Amino acid sequence: xxxxxxxxxxxxxxxxxxxxxxxxxxxxxxxxxxxxxxxxxxxxxxxxxxxxxxxx
Amino acid sequence: xxxxxxxxxxxxxxxxxxxxxxxxxxxxxxxxxxxxxxxxxxxxxxxxxxxxxxxxxxxxxxxxxxxxxxxxxxxxxxxxxxxxxxxxxxxxxxxxxxxxxxxxxxxxxxxxxxxxxxxxxxxxxxxxxxxxxxxxxxxxxxxxxxxxxxxxxxxxxxxxxxxxxxxxxxxxxxxxxxxxxxxxxxxxxxxxxxxxxxxxxxxxxxxxxxxxxxxxxxxxxxxxxxxxxxxxxxxxxxxxxxxxxxxxxxxxxxxxxxxxxxxxxxxxxxxxxxxxxxxxxxxxxxxxxxxxxxxxxxxxxxxxxxxxxxxxxxxxxxxxxxxxxxxxxxxxxxxxxxxxxxxxxxxxxxxxxxxxxxxxxxxxxxxxxxxxxxxxxxxxxxxxxxxxxxxxxxxxxxxxxxxxxxxxxxxxxxxxxxxxxxxxxxxxxxxxxxxxxxxxxxxxxxxxxxxxxxxxxxxxxxxxxxxxxxxxxxxxxxxxxxxxxx
Lengths: 56, 486
Hints:
heterodimer, A: 3 helices, B: FAD/NAD(P)-binding domain, eight-stranded mixed β-sheet, four-stranded parallel β-sheet, about 25% helix
């Protein structure tokens, strides 16, 4: 017998079906040390640009 | 000229930043006085990690007295109650009344004269706006370090129940239709989910996000747009994606009518009502001003001249009520000077915004379900510094404030933790420019897309850790502290 579906499951399923979800590759990149070292530098530069622009 | 006295009410991000810079610039040429009801500084963005048990309260707080003593800043641990911007009777010297909050001297009255005053009192956490909301009711909070410690203890108990095989329902979000700080609720729910996975009980948790936002990702800023994957994408896509990936359910457009043990009564924007059951709820309260009063020289009440009905202080904003379509970036204040008194300023959350940033919406019953505008973190610090510099220049002869920090002209960098682990953790790194959209300068999206971006990854977590240590170092005013940007 299939497990009973709770209203929580049904609501969550409807939302998840229509949401954009990351691929396995995207998820892997998010915690890849080498790639994230590059992103660390890039994000810091982007933030510094915004901080400098805000102080001007 | 006698040494000017500059009084700062509050020692949060805005007040502490203003005090630190005033002392740095003036040295011994001015007396800088801080009045704050709490003895500690709290780096609030890291309270999230206290709330899931990863940090202790002592790791996000430090006592203010030794730091201020080292820097020759006078500190009164007291709660400001009444402003006298014209002095009293024959004496035209402005002063502020305060009540001591030192143990054993509770309620003792202080009278502190000033030449310039910065109101950086932050918000009053208005749990009473929703019956049953808050740590004294049926929900938890992470707004203060002690609240976050309570939340961590409740989470431990929930995990213990789950380890015995009991399913648990978690409800995280906003506890009223007019809340702000959705970013904190967002951080808490994704950290909670991450922590439940780390503790091996995620399969027994139903986790729901409850928010007053019209769409996920609004964050009280009417959402943001970023360039991503060849598209200009609204922030609800990024937020929904993260929630879907983590198996989190979400409820938007909701006002919490009241909380009872394990049950939240909801009203929605479309007029419908509902109920949500929970075993653990972390719901943020709405904010209002701390309730300062103001009296004129004869003792007449002038509170409504200085403060808005919300209790926040009126500054150089355009407070004329107008429809959403008529809102302009120029409505937002830039100098934070009181229009009533030239030596009175507000900084950080204490200033009254002219209107929300998100489009205002009401349910058919007239309930306001609109996020209030955020003023925390980087903008608070920048406003505090700009106000401090204006006061410095005015002391040396400037007729008007010389520095500005309009939220419609400055940006913000924000890192929202999505799970704390040096190798598997992630955080959403976000920049927006400007914070308040300016549709005259940026007609399509209201913001500069070259400076507005968002990305989730481990690098964000490393930046969050870095910021935690850097900003605590800066707040302790150790060597070269002022080189760390706001």
